[in-house]
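Example record

One chain of 403 residues, shown exactly as stored in the release files.
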Amino acid sequence: MNLPLPAPPPVLVLAVEITAPLPTLASDGRHQEALLLLLRDGVPVGRLTVPCGIDQGELSARIAAVAGDSEPRPAVDPGDLPFISVVVPSVFERGDLLLATVESLVKQDYPRFEIIVVDNRPSPDHHDLIARLQAFPVVRVEQEPKPGKSHAGNRGLLAARGEVVTFTDDDVDTPPGWLTSIGSRFAAEPHTAAVTGPLVPTELETPAQIWFERAGGVATSLSKVTFRRRPGTFTVTTSRGETMSLYQSGHFGDGPNMSFRTEVLRSLGGFTTVLGAGTPSLAGEDPDVLVRLLFAGHTLVFDPAAYVAHTHIRDYAELRERMFGYGGGYTAMLTSLIWSDRRHLLGLAAYGLRAVGLLLRKFRGARQAAVSSGEFPAELSRLEFRGLLAGPWLYLRSRRHRF
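Predicted structure tokens for this chain:
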């Protein structure tokens, strides 16, 4: 497929532990820039883009200027850490990425966990891959023939044996301390019902991956934030003293990095099956469950220590579809909330004018500046906006098809 803009050069992506000797960023002839995820004792404290070939002194100075403080992981006795069930829904289309995801999970430095891979498109063709997955003692494979990521997630939730159930995708790489960060947070904070964390790119090698990152479509904050609903309202307060709408779900986390107390997620009914990939709604199942969790009065923590690396979409045609899906999934999610609980009509009516302002800021602010400078395709913004308009009808199609 022809690209709408000249292809941006690939960007080298590196995780840099700033308490250790810094790497030499030599120019390799392919990468002009490097995106650095700055870690302090394994916890993200900043992101920095620098030219390849930068000298060590300049690199050190730039890192010192942007690296923030990190909140240490809670000190918890290993015996108090909860048993965690990690659920990986998959349609088994990308066997290499799925295996890499499971291999990174198997290497977790966590005492008690299981991995549940849900095959959402059962086929005899999957036999060899399933055999390779089940060679790991901690891995189980469950089959869910009903199409849709929400059905797959609910199958994993049903099969989970852990006190905590964690969801990730089949294109994610998890650092060794990921589950420790999640389990420690739940053990130290009994009131916390859900933990989410940032997504950082594993690579930025193709134009689609670079434009996806510039779109700002994933949770990238590197500050710990606690979210609670203000009782009797449709607003959420944060540990930083902010107030935002319950429906500003982009702040709460992303599907490839969500963990819940198992009993809480089951009490919410799991994922809404007419939302998400594999349904006409296309997306929306992940923000939906986080909004419902907060609306029910539970506490959610976004913890940068619980970060994962995500392999962004490599193909531009797929990115076009995904951008439409993100827009459609969001308004399908809002429609679903109203369908299931009419009180959300009041909340969304109050949010309406503010939502228009936020949309204008999104599409005419930094995004528009990137479009004007030739750094982001205008058609991707148009597709996302069209998705926003189409979302309610996509949701109704999902209901008619009884997903």
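Notes: The radius of gyration is 21 Å.
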